[in-house]
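hiii so um. not sure if this is the right channel but i have a protein structure encoded as tokens and i wanna go backwards to a sequence. like what aa goes where. can anyone help
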């Protein structure tokens, strides 16, 4: 590379370097380490930052740290761009294509290639995924004012943490939220309601069964972003209108690519292969059936489900991409009023944040899980994206309380509502299992979120002309701590009967 030669003349200096060469040398000067950090080193720093500051953000990390994350994540980066931090909607951006090309030009300049640079460009958002190998490229890109965020697109924090802690990467335990098991219900955990459905014990605690005299969720569509909904559970398939449920629809969609390689394509379908999404669908909208099975909160609401990830920890490219797509698709679906997602991450993911903001801009009321601890994330507070102002963060509490979180639930100032989902016996909420004629229990902030989304459907169904804010205000006014939020539990438990009267 050509070296700069400076000539000192009297009281000022002249340089034989071009402007481009000066910029290149400045970038080289910022590089202090040539080797990327290991996954262990990256995770340790993420954990330490989360413990000391409360949150970790790639935007606040050094260029070397960011580059290390990109290298350890198949050399794929996610870039959000725009004229301002809120310029995420491509349809409202005046120069989206020009901004994207500017970024690609910088990548091509420093990577020294014109091919295999762009992996994907989002249809609705100012967001793209690119291939990056060199630290110089990272440093140069971070100097552009048009970049809103710049992150590794395939860094697998949870997978690496599992390896560090000696846990199987995709276990069926608490780390993934998956399980296709079934459990016989204890008779004390439900009451039988006509025509022969089991109403979970929590319904009486929140006055949900009494609220059904005023609203059953009819006419409201809930969007569920999760691991899919089982095709083997008829009450969430062809018998969705069984018993007292009628005139409604269920739609199942898949936007998840089941591959470890970011460049793979082809969705693997809408069927749940984890079990978590099936439980959430049951909690919010299972039919008021005549088969002796659990009923959901809003048993006459419509449901649109998206299989967006393989499990609840949004780790890796395809899960984060799938969730982003699900949010934008549901945002563009006019019939959808409510979106519920009981999945998340311990740090923010820019493309998902864009998807949430996009759906919110379309008037959707969004509920997200506040967090359920794995064996090694007990130090984490409210998780992403529940901490976003565009979402309602929900956590689970113990029976007959509004400020005693469940044993594995998270709490914090970002929580908006709570739901009683843990009994003294340790039993949680009865739901439909993955297979026909089978039941199970499900807990954590996950079921609290799905149940609260069902409550919102009851309120909106009772008041179909209301806006999102009106529905939300009514829910707040009917909750334990209104008008002043509790420091860690938001407005607390919702009295659903009061909310629909």
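sure thing!! here u go:
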């Amino acid at each position: 590379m050509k070296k700069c030669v400076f000539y000192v003349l009297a009281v000022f200096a002249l340089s034989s370097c071009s402007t481009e060469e000066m910029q290149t040398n400045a970038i080289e000067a910022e590089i202090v380490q040539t080797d990327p950090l290991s996954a262990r080193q990256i995770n340790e720093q993420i954990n330490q930052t989360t413990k000391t500051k409360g949150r970790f953000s790639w935007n606040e990390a050094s260029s070397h740290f960011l580059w290390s994350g990109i290298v350890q994540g198949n050399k794929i980066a996610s870039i959000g761009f725009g004229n301002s931090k809120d310029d995420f909607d491509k349809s409202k951006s005046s120069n989206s294509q020009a901004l994207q090309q500017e970024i690609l030009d910088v990548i091509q300049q420093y990577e020294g290639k014109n091919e295999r640079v762009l992996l994907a460009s989002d249809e609705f958002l100012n967001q793209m995924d690119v291939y990056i190998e060199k630290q110089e490229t990272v440093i140069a890109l971070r100097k552009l004012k048009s970049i809103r965020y710049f992150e590794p697109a395939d860094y697998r924090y949870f997978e690496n943490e599992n390896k560090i802690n000696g846990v199987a990467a995709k276990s069926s335990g608490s780390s993934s939220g998956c399980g296709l098991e079934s459990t016989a219900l204890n008779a004390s955990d439900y009451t039988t309601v006509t025509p022969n459905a089991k109403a979970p014990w929590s319904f009486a605690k929140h006055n949900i069964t009494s609220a059904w005299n005023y609203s059953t969720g009819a006419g409201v569509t809930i969007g569920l972003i999760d691991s899919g909904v089982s095709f083997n559970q008829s009450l969430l398939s062809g018998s969705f209108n069984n018993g007292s449920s009628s005139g409604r629809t269920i739609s199942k969609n898949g936007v998840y690519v089941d591959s470890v390689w970011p460049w793979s394509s082809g969705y693997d379908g809408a069927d749940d292969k984890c079990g978590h999404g099936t439980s959430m669908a049951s909690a919010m909208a299972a039919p008021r059936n005549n088969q002796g099975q659990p009923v959901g909160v809003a048993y006459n609401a419509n449901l649109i489900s998206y299989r967006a990830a393989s499990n609840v920890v949004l780790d890796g490219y395809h899960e984060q991409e799938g969730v982003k797509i699900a949010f934008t698709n549901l945002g563009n679906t006019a019939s959808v009023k409510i979106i519920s997602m009981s999945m998340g991450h311990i740090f923010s993911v820019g493309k998902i944040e864009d998807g949430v903001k996009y759906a919110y801009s379309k008037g959707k009321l969004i509920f997200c899980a506040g967090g359920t601890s794995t064996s090694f994330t007990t130090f984490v507070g409210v998780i992403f994206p529940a901490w976003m102002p565009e979402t309602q963060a929900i956590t689970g509490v113990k029976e007959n309380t509004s400020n005693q979180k469940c044993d594995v639930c998270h709490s914090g100032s970002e929580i908006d509502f709570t739901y009683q989902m843990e009994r003294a016996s340790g039993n949680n909420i009865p739901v439909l299992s993955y297979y026909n004629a089978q039941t199970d229990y499900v807990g954590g902030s996950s079921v609290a979120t799905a149940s609260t989304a069902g409550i919102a459907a009851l309120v909106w169904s009772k008041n179909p002309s209301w806006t999102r804010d009106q529905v939300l205000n009514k829910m707040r006014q009917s909750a334990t701590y209104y008008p002043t939020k509790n420091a860690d539990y938001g407005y607390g438990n919702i009295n659903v009967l009061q909310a629909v009267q």
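oh and Confidence is low (pLDDT under 50) at residues 1-28, 169-174.
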